[in-house]
């Protein structure tokens, strides 16, 4: 069991990768570098491969005492004993996901650039909310844009952890933390790095600065 308010720091999201040993190697590097949350996200794997990958990542995150969040698939999260689920606007309703997973699991919600959606999610029991894209994203080039003021408003009005996502790098992440983000969700700038562990360490240093405390 992880403290829900421990959703803070580098929130690593897995890239699409059909080679499970390579995915495991890359994630191990990210965790060794200080990633504090891992989300398993795959938009290309079939059901069997998702189960295989999620199962081995569950074992790996246990080794590092890091929570594993599954993207979208509530039943996969339940099957492998993940620590939680991350839901988008078109996924299972939050209350239904809670009924499947139980009260002890983490549920996060994508709220894009919409503060009212985040308020509704928190009222329905979301444990954290995510906003973005704050910067152009190679993973989701057509994602809606969110501005920094949204984070400030959310920080002033919401008592749950705030996750920022979308084109985040070591260079632009600090401004999001200054505006109130608790965690930075990263795919490309982490897993496309030549040295994944070093990239994770660089991200992690952002959270030692005063504005992230």
Description:
This protein is of the alpha/beta class and 213 residues long. It has one domain (4-207): Aldolase class I (TIM Barrel, Alpha-Beta Barrel), CATH 3.20.20. It is 40% helix and 16% strand. The longest helix has 18 residues, at 47-64. The radius of gyration is 16 Å and the shape is globular. It starts with 8 loop residues before the first strand and ends in a 7-residue tail after the last helix. The mean pLDDT is 94.
CATH architecture: Alpha-Beta Barrel
> Major sheet: size, sense and barrel closure?
8 strands, parallel, barrel
Query: Could you name the CATH topology?
Result: TIM Barrel
Kindly report the name of the CATH homologous superfamily: Aldolase class I
The assigned structural class equals alpha/beta
SSE series: EHEHEHEHEHEHEHEHH
Low-confidence stretches: none
Instruction: Give the averaged pLDDT, no decimals.
Output: 94
Summarize the structure.
With 213 residues, the chain is of the alpha/beta class. The protein has a single domain (4-207), classed as Aldolase class I (TIM Barrel, Alpha-Beta Barrel).
């Amino acid at each position: 069991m992880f403290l829900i308010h421990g959703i803070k720091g580098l929130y690593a999201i897995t890239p699409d990768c059909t080679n499970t040993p390579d995915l495991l190697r890359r994630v191990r590097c990210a965790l060794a570098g200080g990633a504090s949350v891992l989300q398993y996200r795959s938009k290309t794997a079939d059901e069997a491969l998702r189960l295989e990958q999620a199962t081995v990542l569950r074992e790996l995150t246990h080794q590092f005492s890091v929570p594993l969040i599954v993207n979208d698939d509530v039943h996969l999260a339940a099957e492998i004993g993940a620590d939680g689920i991350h839901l988008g606007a078109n996924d299972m309703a939050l209350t239904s996901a809670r009924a499947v997973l139980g009260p002890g699991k983490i549920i996060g919600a994508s709220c894009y650039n919409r503060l009212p959606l985040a308020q509704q999610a928190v009222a329905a029991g979301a444990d954290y909310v995510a906003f973005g894209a704050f910067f152009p994203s190679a993973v989701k080039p057509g994602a809606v844009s969110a501005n920094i003021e949204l984070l400030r408003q959310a920080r002033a009005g919401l008592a749950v952890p705030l996750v920022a996502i979308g084109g985040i790098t070591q260079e632009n992440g600090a401004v999001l933390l200054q505006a109130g983000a608790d965690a930075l969700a990263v795919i490309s700038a982490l897993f496309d790095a030549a040295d994944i562990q070093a990239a994770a360490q660089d991200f992690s240093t952002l959270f030692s600065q005063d504005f992230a405390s």
